[in-house]
Amino acid sequence: QVSELVQFLLVKDQKKMPIKRTEMLKNVIHSTAAYSEIVNRAGRTLQEVFGLQLVEIDTKRHTYILINNLPRAEGQYLCRDKEKEKMGLLLVILSFIFMKGNSVKDSALWEFLNLLRVYPGKQHRVFGDVRKLVTDEFARQKYLEITPIPLTDPTEFKYQWGPRAEKETSRKDVLKFVAKVR
Amino acid sequence: NTVMAAQMTNAHRRFLQVLMSNGITEGSEARKLHQHCCETDKVHYAHDKLDDFISTINSHLQPLFMQIRKGISEDDGRAHYAVVNLAETEVTKMASDYTEIELELFRKTMDLIILSENGFASSTDILNLADQLKTKKIKKKEAEQVLKVFVEDKWLSEKNGEYTLHTRCIIEMEQYILSNYQDVARKCNICHSLAIQSQVCESCGIGMHLPCVRKYFRAQTEPRCPKCNEFWSCDIP
To answer: B7 to chain A, minimum CA–CA distance in Å?
Structure first.
């Protein structure tokens, strides 16, 4: 059962979607009594064999992600090209948010991206529908946390680092990146 | 006969992670990756120890019913590596990435390919399947798009408007194919692995991979079937 859970988690994580405890119970574990034991063992296996860490990012709703626990390596083996480009855009956005004090309004973010010739309305040559990528994909994958700002009309949103970004990227890495760009 | 399995190091883990995200990795790329991982994680590197390196990982993957498997490309005879799920009885590897409709189209395409003479299914034949799908009939245009995705994701490969199974697909699904297409799937007479593309002896019907044919007949003055000794009628690649 541990091996089943490990495979389930690997497959789910391939798409960088957070995994809910209910999904694990429904699809693999089938027993709330055995749950903690199996999850712990699966976590140890993931660490030992794959160098991945199972992290609970929402203790209320019990959702988990897998993060890469290996020391970051330089070089071109990190990920496929399209992923690399998306990650590049993400890193730029995370840096911007960081430099602006960890929280930015959507209007400010899009103004910044416009400077990089990335527009919310237009299809980008590489990223396609950028607005969808940023507000939908990056948010679902928990790289960005997008919350509505109360008492704004029309509703404005604020962008912050999401839990996956917090765990996978260090602010030190971001500073290094920003320094390189300057 | 149990030997204490070598410990996994971060180099092994990194290698495994990259292999998994690549889907399929060609031999020389795997060797470069081996070196990169050992250097990055400061593990002792010996260029001829890739097999041992992989065995170590495999000994840890075994309890999880997974394995790094080596397969030979039917096109150029080069070795490729993929991480395979041994517990799979269906095309479950793909199940999480594609819709029911796409999976049905894939299974039917696989039928066409395996049942074919030469291991290829024409684009026309596949697109004709589009409106025969039980799950939901789709238009030819949609089917064409789905085929494109299968090629991008390396489940199918395309040559001159014809489709065959990608090396990755063959490595990952060899067991599934051999058990589900038992009477139809061919095994190469030389290397005994599944053969999707093959040359077949006109007299006795045995099949061989094209790279295996090339290697085998290189040493022969006259190309003759290894089983029935009749003159080999196909062009030697």
So the answer is: 9
